[in-house]
Amino acid sequence: MSVVLAVLVLGERLRRVQWLAVGIATVAVAVLWAGTGALPWVALVLAGSFGFYGLLKKRVPLAPVAGLTAEGFLLGPIAIGYLVWLQAVGVGTFGHGTGHTVLLVLAGPVTALPLLLFAFGAKRLPLATLGLLQYVNPTMQFAWGVLVDHEPMPPARWVGFVLVWVALLVFAVDGWTSSRRRAGRAVGTRETQPTRSTV
Predict the structure, then answer these.
(1) How many whole angstroms separate alpha carbon 168 and alpha carbon 59?
(2) Is the pTM of this model over 0.70?
């Protein structure tokens, strides 16, 4: 979703190798879809929401801290209202034990720090790169599910997982080699420029 938005909305251009990575990732999604036998609408909604969030962070002309503050002012009242409602109907857990309450209070900073880092990254990276990097978090969740919770892994999931990481490696290697070429050209340009003599 991020790559599609980057190309269609922001006009970012992808190199051939990047298109290859996108193609491999698309095949991975198709394999996972075929393996489950149903449209993965939850995953698509999540992908869409993260894609549009990244697009908004890219387009809104605010510094990362100011942007996150604006998000807090917009969404804070809704979140506070929801928490008050939970307490009012008796299903809230705030105040149920010191340790639990401390963890709930710390949830704010623990959530805000990654959002702040994401905002800094969104301003500095192309949206297409940002979108593919967002596979890191689901991969960590995947590893937790398999290694800690021992969730079942049918063959289609393994194939999809491997294909996603092949796509990410192709994209990352292309980005690395491209940045090395640009850096080399910049150094070559500086070396060929005539130096000014001072009198």
Answers:
(1) 25
(2) no
* 37: DSSP letter: T
- The tokens for 149 are 């919770």
Q: What angle do CA 144, 148, 151 make, to 5 degrees?
A: 80
Q: What are the backbone angles phi and psi of residue 193, rounded to the nearest 5°?
A: -70, 135
SS3 call for 10: coil
- Distance between CA atoms of residues 57 and 66, nearest Å: 11
Distance (Å, whole) CA 31 – CA 193: 52
Of residues 45, 39, 60, the one with CA closest to residue 1: 45
pLDDT in tens, 159-181: 988 998 898 888 878 877 887 77
The CA-atom distances, in angstroms, between 57 and each of 5, 68, 121, 130, 167 are 13, 9, 10, 11, 24
